[in-house]
Specification:
The structure is a single chain. The protein is α/β, with parallel strands linked by helices. The chain has three domains: 164 residues, Rossmann fold (3-Layer(aba) Sandwich); 138 residues, Argininosuccinate synthetase, chain A, domain 2, CATH 3.90.1260; 38 residues. It has a five-stranded parallel sheet, sandwiched between helices. A five-stranded antiparallel sheet has the order 10-9-8-13-14. A hairpin with a 5-residue loop joins β11 and β12. α7 packs across α8.
Length: 411
């Protein structure tokens, strides 16, 4: 915990919601410091102007309220590089929350430098992963920055205490915030995640009302949707022949995924801080993009390169999940991954149908698929089947040696 007298100005990651509004006031009253708010538009689908009005109401100077549209930067510089790796944490989670934190932290540090702030603050709890992601990013970018994490410092340990603090300090509380929230939600252009309360028992199914980005697959159209996604050097650039910016393309895939019920995940995962948690994720556009990208790679990546990427992917995904986006090992892996994408160019046809996204066709000017080699008919390219005998015998040499030893020891 920083010394209170050392803090003159702090940059707060501010959503405009009840919790961060309480944090804003708590910083003012506890540290006696000036608060600068930063609100990021990452495509969460909410109007951000109310955050500005709430900050003004709480006494923040207009020049100290920062709201930035980061949708394109988020998709181009964070989501797309991650998807080149086909990253999935614990084999399933497409890292929608994890990948947003380093960008928010980066912008906070930039603003802190601009306004001469002593510290940065976030609203992550002391039990979750986000506190680690934010703070590792802060320190990687500004090693001597002071960090304030209210949830690890204050005594507002219940919803009742938070509401009482809000009322005492005249912080507006919307009616639906009185009482217990049924679950917590985090959203951005890539996904929405829901955790806590009604989701805490992993034996119970996710209630239908929790889902917000996808229709129930059972209620999705009975006719499949066929789309074609064009790739250039591993990044999606067009859908059905229409070129789009990264954020526009992801938003378009989100809508296609939404109406076809694609991208739902009910997951029990291992948090970095040591506990298991149960969450529900909806990643409609990202799920489509994931399968399409793998389809493109299947045609254009050499076997050795493809298998090496798959071996490294769990480590890469874990680094992002644990908050090490700005660490040298993640950047080293990124350089390798990006090098592998040089010829991942072409187009992939995907069938969207009642919760599934299936690749049904792929083509590339850099395809390594040779129909003459694999055909059961006579191919134009010479392939002598008899060569396989020597290949097999060489690979069987050590197995035969082991078998002979086993026979000798048994006799």
């Amino acid at each position: 915990m920083p010394e209170k007298k050392e803090i003159k100005r702090v940059v707060l990651a501010y959503s405009g919601g009840l919790d961060t509004s309480i944090i804003l006031k708590w910083l003012q009253t506890t540290y006696g410091c000036e608060v600068v708010t930063f609100t990021a538009d990452l495509g969460q689908g909410e109007e951000l102007e109310p955050a500005r009005q709430k900050a003004l109401l709480l006494g923040i100077k207009p020049e100290h309220i920062f709201i930035e549209d980061l949708r394109e930067e988020f998709t181009r510089d964070y989501v797309f590089p991650m998807f080149r790796a086909n990253a999935q944490y614990e084999g399933l989670y497409l890292l929608g929350t994890s990948i947003a934190r380093p960008l928010i932290a980066k912008k906070q540090i930039e603003i802190a430098r601009k306004v001469g702030a002593d510290a940065v603050a976030h609203g992550a709890t002391g039990k979750g992963n986000d506190q680690v992601r934010f703070e590792l990013s802060y320190y990687a970018l500004e090693p001597d920055i002071k960090v304030i994490a209210p949830w690890r410092e204050w005594d507002l340990t219940s919803r009742t205490a938070l509401l009482a603090f809000a009322e005492q300090n005249q912080i507006p509380i919307t009616k639906d915030k009185h009482g217990e929230a049924p679950f917590s939600v985090d959203a951005n252009l890539l996904h929405v995640s829901s955790e806590g309360k009604v989701l805490e028992d992993p034996a119970q199914p996710v209630p239908d009302y929790v889902y917000s980005r996808t229709v129930n697959p059972e209620d999705a159209p009975d006719k499949p949707t066929i789309i074609e996604i064009a790739f250039e050097k591993g990044d999606a650039i067009a859908v059905d022949g229409v070129k789009m910016s990264p954020a526009t393309l992801l938003a378009h895939l989100n809508e296609l995924g939404r109406i076809n019920g694609i991208g739902r995940l009910d997951l029990v995962e291992n948090r970095f801080v040591g506990m298991k948690s149960r969450g529900m994720y909806e990643t409609p556009g990202g799920t489509i993009l994931y399968f399409a990208h793998r389809g493109m790679e299947s045609l254009t990546l050499d076997r050795g390169a493809a298998h090496l990427k798959d071996e490294l992917m769990p480590k890469y995904a874990e680094l992002i999940y644990n908050g090490f986006w700005f660490a040298p090992e993640r950047e080293m892996l990124q350089a390798l991954i990006d090098r592998s994408q040089e010829f991942v160019t072409g187009s992939v046809r995907v069938k969207l149908y009642k919760g599934s996204a299936a690749v049904i066709g792929r083509t590339s000017p850099y395809s390594l698929y040779d129909q003459d080699l694999v055909t059961f008919e006579e191919g134009a390219v010479a392939y002598d089947h008899r060569d396989a005998a020597g290949f097999i015998k060489l690979n069987a040499l050590r197995l035969r040696t082991l078998a002979r030893r086993a026979q000798r020891s048994a006799s």
